[in-house]
Design brief:
Length: 153
Amino acid sequence: MKPDLIQRFFKKLQPQRERLLIVDDEEELRKLFSGFFEKRGYRVSTAESLEVAEAKLAEEAFDLILQDVMLGDGDGIEFLQRIKLLQPGVPVIILTGLGYDEPVLHEATENGAAGYMSKLLPLDQVLMEVHRVLKANAAGSSQDTAAKLEIAE
């Protein structure tokens, strides 16, 4: 076998790393989160605005989005509807710098957010929430696939 064929073969055997999109207008937070998740094996893309996020969502599939509730160019909760059109089924965790806010939490979950958390939490807690949402989404996808297979039969 040729060397490039061997590399492609082994690449297919390696587990696929989850792809995260971090959408926040604070550069330091994007750098902190991307470095943290990359060190833990995630593939990370970042966007500083909803406009950039929309372009990335049109180009690449993601497994999870961590998105600020309010960005310079728009409302992160309203943007959830756009995400549903571009990548149905991708879970979104809404981030806030304001701490716990019941009305915002309610609006986020009502609009399809899979999670809501403070940016000020320790990174290990952010990681636990990312794991929880990815696991729940994978379980939901498996159930959806099983249901589609039953219908097809």
